[in-house]
Amino acid sequence: MSQTDYDLTTVTATDHPRVFRNGPAFSRGELEVANDIADALDDQWRVVITMGPYRGYNIHYDLKPDSHIVHLDFYSVRPATGYDRQQVIADIQQGVKQAQGR
Predict the structure, then answer these.
(1) Dist. CA 74–CA 56, nearest whole Å
(2) What is the C-alpha separation between 71 and 55, in angstroms, rounded?
(3) CATH code where residue 47 lies
(4) pTM of the full predicted structure?
(5) How crowded is the C-beta side of 44, counted as CA atoms within 13 Å?
(6) Is 1 within a domain?
């Protein structure tokens, strides 16, 4: 599976109504990061988490504006460290605004 391709029919719900997993579930802080991002966005946006080894980053995001999805891909070893969470949220919010033409 590509780091950015996923099938929304195979996602698994989490305790957050707009956060979903696609792939193996870890418990290394990635869910808390995804929840914070989802809470910072309009209710129409969903967040899908993928994780895996051999990433050149700790977190990467991709916006799917047509389906209102933020895809978060985490490096499985350090998914919740090595970056400023508030800056990531601000960057995603800016990307969403640009995607919506605001």
Answers:
(1) 10
(2) 15
(3) 3.30.160
(4) 0.87
(5) 7
(6) no
Q: How far is CA 77 from the centre of its chain?
A: 16
Tell me the two tokens of residue 14: 């989490």
The whole-angstrom separation of Cα 70 and Cα 92 is 8
* Per-residue pLDDT of the chain in tens (102 residues, 90 and over written 9): 334 455 556 899 999 999 999 987 788 999 999 999 999 999 999 999 999 999 999 999 999 999 999 999 999 888 999 999 999 999 999 999 998 886
Query: Does 62 map to a domain?
Result: yes
DSSP string, 39-88: HTS-TT-EEEEEEESS-SSSEEEEEETTTTEEEEEEETTSTTSSS-HHHH
